[in-house]
């Protein structure tokens, strides 16, 4: 498809070729893979709400420095083929009252439980990448090797692009986190014509000394493949990539995001990646390899599946998705 980036295998969302289907081992994970999704759902929720015997260590994150914003808000480009909002509002009655992206500053100096915390949100891809093939195809150093600067991302069959989706969800998430008092920075906010490159996306989180970073995506897999998954950084120490210090905290962040995303949206963990856990571990993503801060990706659903697309194109659902991510991040930062 013309939307698929050059480093994509043609199905997935352009974040790079998949390594062989394998998720991190360990007895717990292996055992979980044998469970039905509903049981996993319970497990994930139990994880994030802190069931008895929770072994997550209390966090004592230092106060992070304040960071500057990524730029002024601008209106997202609106390609004519968007099917946004025309279908998929399966649960309008459950929709939060506020469903429009904010037009406020991306910086917060507010009070609240996340006061002093810095969160960087990375809206995957860029709506303008389609018009800048030369720029985004340039190879950049991702620590372990070289890879395309960025990719176009995928879209629904009706033309709602992943880049539109990620920007919308990211803005909603920013608002929710700001309401908790966090300082929030976006890596791009529809305020640049393409990119940034994946290495720059990582550096933005690093320079902000972010307490948590989340890269928002939606997948482009085969129809019938459904559900969300959170991508965790493998422990990599090669070249300029060293994720050994963030792999553990990132897993904690990712598990909390996955559990809260499940609870907020009602979506099931992916039925095609992660063995039903909703978690995947990768070592081929520059945005993770180059991060020095706890960071995860989330693939919110499969844009090429009609049922998932109906959700992804619903503003009410996107608000739930943002709420789930926010709850996960809040949980992680509170410990
Ligand atoms: Zn993507």
TrEMBL record:
The family database entries (SMART domains) matched by this protein are listed as:
Ami_3 (SM00646)
- Region annotated Disordered sits at 55-129
Domain of life of the organism encoding this protein: Bacteria
Gene Ontology biological process terms, A to Z: peptidoglycan catabolic process
The UniProt entry's GO CC annotations, sorted and at most eight, read: outer membrane-bounded periplasmic space
Bilayer-crossing residues are: 28-46
The protein's UniProt keywords, in alphabetical order, are: Hydrolase, Membrane, Transmembrane, Transmembrane helix
Compositional bias of type Low complexity: which residue ranges?
Answer: 90-117
Q: Which residues form a coiled coil?
A: none
One Pfam family recorded for the sequence: Amidase_3
The GO terms describing molecular function are: N-acetylmuramoyl-L-alanine amidase activity
Annotated MurNAc-LAA domain ranges read 202-330
The identity of this protein, by name, is N-acetylmuramoyl-L-alanine amidase
């Amino acid at each position: 498809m013309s939307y698929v980036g050059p480093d994509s295998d043609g199905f997935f969302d352009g974040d790079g070729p998949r390594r062989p289907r394998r998720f991190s081992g360990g007895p717990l994970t292996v055992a979980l893979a044998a469970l039905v999704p509903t049981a996993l759902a319970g497990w994930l929720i139990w994880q994030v709400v802190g069931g008895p015997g929770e072994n997550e260590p209390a966090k004592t994150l230092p106060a992070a420095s304040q960071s500057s914003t990524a730029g002024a808000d601008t209106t997202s480009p609106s390609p004519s083929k968007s099917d946004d909002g025309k279908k998929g509002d399966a649960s309008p009655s459950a929709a939060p009252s506020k469903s429009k992206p904010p037009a406020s500053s991306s910086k917060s100096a507010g009070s609240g439980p996340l006061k002093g915390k810095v969160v960087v949100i990375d809206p995957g891809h860029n709506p303008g990448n389609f018009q800048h093939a030369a720029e985004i195809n340039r190879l950049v150093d991702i620590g372990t090797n070289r890879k395309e600067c960025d990719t176009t991302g995928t879209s629904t069959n009706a033309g709602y692009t992943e880049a539109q989706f990620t920007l919308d969800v990211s803005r909603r998430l920013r608002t929710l986190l700001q309401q908790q008092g966090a300082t929030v920075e976006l890596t791009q906010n529809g305020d640049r014509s393409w990119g940034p490159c994946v290495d720059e996306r990582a550096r933005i989180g690093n320079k902000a000394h972010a307490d948590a970073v989340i890269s928002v995506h939606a997948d482009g897999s085969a129809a019938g493949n459904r559900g969300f998954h959170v991508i965790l950084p493998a422990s990599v120490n090669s070249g300029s990539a060293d994720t050994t210090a963030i792999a553990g905290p990132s897993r904690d962040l990712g598990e909390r995001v996955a559990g809260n995303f499940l609870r907020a949206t009602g979506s099931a963990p992916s039925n095609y990646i992660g063995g039903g856990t909703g978690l995947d571990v990768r070592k081929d993503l520059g945005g993770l390899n180059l991060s020095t801060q706890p960071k995860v990706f989330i693939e919110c659903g499969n844009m090429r599946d009609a049922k998932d697309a109906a959700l992804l194109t619903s503003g009410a659902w996107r608000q739930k998705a943002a709420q789930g991510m926010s709850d996960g991040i809040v949980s992680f930062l509170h410990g």
